[in-house]
Amino acid sequence: MNILTTPKALQDYAKSVKRTGETIALVPTMGALHAGHLSLVEAARKSADRVIVSVFVNPMQFGPNEDFAAYPRTFEADAAKLEAAGVDAVFHPAPEAMYPAGYATCVEVTGALTAKLCGAKRPGHFRGVATVVLKLLLLSGADKAFFGQKDAQQVAVLRRMIADLGVATEIIMAPIVREASGLALSSRNAYLSPDERTAALVLSKSLQEAHDVYETGEKRAKVLKEITAVELSKEPLAKIDYVELYSFPDLEEIERIHAPALLAVAVYIGKTRLIDNIILGEEPCC
Ligand code: AMP
After folding, report:
1. pTM of whole model > 0.85?
2. Could you say which residues of the chain have pLDDT below 70?
3. What is the number of the ligand 1 atom nearest to the C-alpha of 186?
4. Which residues line ligand 1 (CB under 6 A)?
5. CA distance 165 to 110
6. Which domains does the chain have, with CATH numbers?
7. Nearest-CA neighbor of 279 among 266, 263, 267, 265?
């Protein structure tokens, strides 16, 4: 497995692959890899000749009071997992390699897609995401790039970006991988104490509750959000950041569900902010 640490090395690697006529799938990550990330790698492996995984804790997508410094960095273990998963190349640059002195360019997806959900709660977050992902797509020449439904708003924003800018990469969304308990796998679960980990089950439980009611025929967005919020508020360690329901992938306000809709929550469990979501009105799918 190739370990690439500079943008130039990634670009050269991609060019050498392209020269042989092979296709490239990219899986962008921030590392601290778990089975959710590895499900993306597996899907990528099935869809392209070569798989590149980036492991980069991107400073541009963290706010000043967020967890950039504390974010888990476990590169050796990550590299071993990726090698075992049959990945061809890992891109693991230092922040200064991605944003050298004089760096001055940002990509901003404007409007409704970034004004709500995590975009409203984390100003500048999607500017950082769009910028780093576009740079990764350009450097890697990826034919396909894989992202998790866990960050569904991210997928909506990136699909808008590549459509608007004429980037040829196909963005593929893979389902959320969960523990048997229902807890969505997340690198940030490492921050949770044992009690908090138990409390965190309330996220998936609340979404499941709303899903079950939806399945009985309840289509009103307000009611489904209320059911989710009531379930979340039963957990004393949980503090709701948002409970929202929008059309997906356009993220437009809806009163009733008649097409795919995203029911998304962000919840503080102690100091740790966790997100989870469910798509109603359509089977979540690649
Ligand atoms: P991160 O390292 O948290 O930036 O995540 C890298 C990619 O893995 C993103 O596309 C995430 O949506 C995806 N991902 C994170 N957690 C999960 C999960 N539990 N299931 C599926 N994909 C995930």
Report:
1. yes
2. 283-286
3. 16
4. 29-30, 36-37, 39-40, 147-148, 150-151, 174, 176-177, 184-187
5. 13
6. 2-174 (3.40.50.620), 187-275 (3.30.1300.10)
7. 263
